[in-house]
Amino acid sequence: MLGEKGTKNLLGKSLFYFNVGSNDYVTNYFLTNGQVPSLLQTQYTPSQFEDLLLSNLVLRIEELYAMGARKMAVVGLSVLGCLPAQRLIRKGSPTTCVESINEIVRSYNIALLNRIHSLQAAHPDAVFTYLDTYRFIDSVIRQPSAYGFENVLAGCCGSGRFHGLPTCSIPGLYKVCEDASKYLFWDFVHPTSKIDKLVIAKFWTGSYPDAIPYNLRELALVP
User: Fold this and answer.
1) What is this structure's pTM?
2) Pick from 72, 65, 13, 8: nearest CA to 216
3) How much is the average pLDDT of 60-82?
4) What range defines the domain where residue 112 resides?
5) Where are the alpha helices (DSSP H) in the chain?
6) What are φ and ψ of residue 54, in 5° steps?
7) Is residue 12 part of a domain?
8) Is residue 123 part of a domain?
9) Where on the tree of life does the source sit, at the highest rank (predicted)?
């Protein structure tokens, strides 16, 4: 048994990785037929919902800090307005994302980074880093061929416009592309393994502004 002292020492050397928020938006706040607001949208403005999520995230981080955690990486939200499901629901253009959603995401990410700065100021004996998913995925969507992609706005597997319907696991109701490595999205909301690998590589060895102030490799090496 490690005991309390040994456990705190282990937690202090461990790296904690927070990648939260996407489902809170995609399957809750943005859960609508595109014609009427979702239940949460009738209860919270975008800024209020943003504050709710971030306040809860900071609370959980503070709890881990109190237990001994000292190295923490927090991931920002990706381009949720480019998800095939959101583009289908909101009858998006074949070549563009839903800007109103991405605007909310950008606001969240800015506020998240500010919260991380505040956490760092409050706990100088800990190290916090921000990992920016949005910036990189946005660059892939703008220049897909530079990263080996051919389709960055529709799912490889699914049905409906942009393959934006969640039918990929239902036999007889979906179609699958020939080469998923040429797609950014696997289905209506999930990325392909290819883009996942590219994102993690950015997180592991990237520099500002993809990782602020440390990438995961640097954070892991912090004493």
Assistant:
1) 0.94
2) 72
3) 98
4) 3-146+193-221
5) 3-13, 22-24, 39-43, 46-67, 84-89, 99-122, 133-142, 193-205, 216-221
6) -70, -35
7) yes
8) yes
9) Eukaryota
